[in-house]
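TA notes, week 10

Several of you asked for a full example with nothing omitted. So below is the full record: structure tokens for the whole chain, then the designed sequence directly under it. When grading your own attempts, check the secondary structure regions first.
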């Protein structure tokens, strides 16, 4: 007992001399995790994690304090704080805007973002209060460092010894079983620097996977059945489109006039219960055009993709994109484009336009592609910018119809203006989709419009954008619209009937490739009719799992008990 008492006395002395550092270091390593856990109303869990972290911080500080020269110990404290402060600052920003801890989805977005997109992101999320707060924070840190405040801030041992001893004993009692029971979490995900490091490793591995797919030989496609005759199959790949902000799906602002009219006339099939498998473009594209889904055991890049299959089936493939053509790390979209017979882009990576390039810039690319078609069968993918932020860069002034006064959400006037800009972007998107469809009215053609994912626009408080780590339903609930020309309906009445009969079926677009092949009458070994939403064998009971969360039970039901777990299954 005397040894334990002596040890605790020495620990208390160490804390007295280094309490400023210990408390500050504890704060930068625990604040964001505590915020995340408390947000889930797990208060006891927050205390448990806090004690588990405090114990090793205090032990390591004590060891260094007792055995290192003062000058080296002082330098080590500065280095440790700086190293841990940087990931804390990044995660704090993520937490502030997305209510989530940092994960590979965020790092992936950073690595995929070019200079212009970075500027747009800063404009969208970094406002005057954030700038002032950052300046104040940096100034406070510089001032504290110059004045060496953490050395001057300390407690008297006699006053804090009983409390400190109790905390240390309790920390030991809690930390040991927690470290054993949650060993993976403690060793890999407890600190911001751990989460940032692991997320970066995963994201970089994902980037390398793109190159593996890009270099993969495509002659391994084995078509088991090919009865394809449809002359034009068109896939409009939208961006960041939340169906809950579309009048077509019941939104209160009339921002889909063309689609509304087409629906009223019975010209389009409007699917009512479609969700995306992820809430970031890179993750979605890894599954949307491949046979990989959340049940898959192999990496997504080991599966055949839709572009290669359509090539093998005798289609001339066209990839026409208003998203930038490449990135410093490459992208899934670029891989699919490279595998297409024709690939054209409206922009180049690192373009520095003051405003966004509008989706209508795709029209001449499409017109040229249609004019230069060879062969009887063509498959088109048109990749839009859609509702990607900054929203006001996505539409011309003539579509600036709605203002903050039209928005009924209970949010600030600033947020209402942003929501109005998003609704205007969807108004313009309605025009773009209709204009693409119009180009095929006199053709034998079927057109699918499916966005990659949704977009939260202050629908549930202050969260805007899309994030993989802490989703809400607005980030993944998307529209799916199918149109067919009169020539197509006359030649394939049974296909159009199957499409119309499927509009109320629940579906997740990680299985979209099965539906596309079903339409095209092309089969491979991986094709499964139970995963085609238009097939009579479709399995509507398949759980729709997003990031380990059951959509119906947890996301739609609001029970998202996912405090810190990061899902990277699509990378595995």
């Amino acid at each position: 007992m005397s040894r334990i008492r002596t040890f605790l006395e020495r620990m208390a002395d160490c804390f007295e001399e280094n309490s400023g550092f210990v408390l500050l270091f504890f704060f930068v390593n625990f604040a964001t995790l505590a915020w995340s856990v408390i947000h889930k109303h797990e208060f006891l869990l927050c205390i448990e994690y806090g004690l588990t972290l405090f114990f090793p911080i205090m032990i390591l500080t004590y060891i260094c304090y007792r055995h290192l020269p003062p000058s080296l110990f002082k330098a080590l404290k500065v280095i440790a704080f700086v190293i841990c402060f940087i990931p804390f600052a990044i995660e704090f920003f993520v937490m502030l805007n997305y209510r989530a801890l940092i994960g590979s989805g965020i790092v992936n977005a950073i690595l995929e973002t070019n200079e212009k997109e970075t500027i747009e992101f800063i404009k969208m999320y970094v406002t005057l209060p954030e700038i002032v707060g950052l300046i104040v924070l940096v100034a406070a840190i510089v001032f504290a460092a110059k004045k060496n405040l953490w050395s001057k801030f300390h407690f008297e041992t006699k006053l804090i010894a009983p409390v400190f001893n109790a905390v240390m004993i309790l920390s030991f009692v809690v930390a040991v079983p927690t470290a054993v029971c949650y060993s993976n979490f403690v060793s890999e995900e407890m600190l911001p620097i751990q989460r940032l490091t692991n997320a970066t490793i995963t994201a970089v591995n994902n980037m390398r996977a793109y190159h593996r797919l890009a270099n993969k030989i495509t002659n391994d496609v084995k078509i088991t059945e090919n009865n394809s005759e449809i002359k034009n199959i068109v896939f409009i790949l939208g961006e960041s489109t939340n169906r809950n902000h579309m009048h077509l799906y019941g939104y209160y602002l009339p921002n889909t006039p063309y689609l509304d009219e087409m629906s009223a006339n019975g010209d389009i099939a409007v699917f009512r219960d479609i969700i995306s498998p992820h809430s970031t473009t890179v993750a979605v594209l890894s599954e949307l055009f491949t046979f990989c889904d959340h049940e898959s055991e192999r990496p997504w890049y080991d599966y055949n993709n839709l572009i290669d299959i359509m090539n093998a089936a005798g289609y001339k493939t066209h990839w026409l994109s208003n998203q930038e053509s490449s990135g410093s790390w490459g992208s899934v979209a670029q891989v699919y484009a490279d595998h297409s017979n024709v690939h054209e882009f409206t922009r180049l990576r690192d373009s520095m336009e003051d405003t966004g390039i509008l989706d209508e810039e795709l029209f001449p690319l499409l017109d040229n592609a249609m004019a230069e078609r060879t062969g009887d069968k063509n498959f088109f993918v048109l990749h839009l910018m859609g509702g990607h932020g900054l929203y006001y860069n996505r539409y011309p002034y003539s579509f600036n119809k709605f203002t903050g006064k039209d928005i009924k959400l209970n949010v600030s006037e600033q947020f209402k203006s942003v929501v109005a800009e998003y609704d205007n972007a969807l108004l313009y998107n309605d025009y773009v989709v209709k204009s693409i469809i119009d180009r095929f009215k006199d053709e034998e053609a079927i057109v699918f419009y499916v966005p990659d994912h949704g977009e939260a626009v202050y629908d549930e408080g202050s969260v805007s954008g899309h994030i993989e780590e802490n989703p809400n339903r607005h980030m993944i609930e998307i529209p799916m619209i199918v149109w067919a020309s009169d020539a197509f309906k006359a030649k394939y009445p049974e296909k159009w009937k199957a499409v119309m009969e499927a509009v109320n079926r629940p579906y997740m677009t990680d299985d979209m490739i099965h539906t596309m092949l079903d339409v095209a009458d092309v089969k491979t070994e991986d094709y499964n009719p139970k995963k085609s939403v238009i097939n009579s064998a479709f399995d509507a009971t398949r759980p729709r799992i997003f990031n380990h969360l059951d959509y119906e039970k947890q996301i739609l039901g609001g029970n998202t008990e996912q405090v810190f777990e990061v899902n990277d299954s699509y990378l595995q």
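The chain has 20 helices and 14 strands. Use that as a sanity check on your answer.
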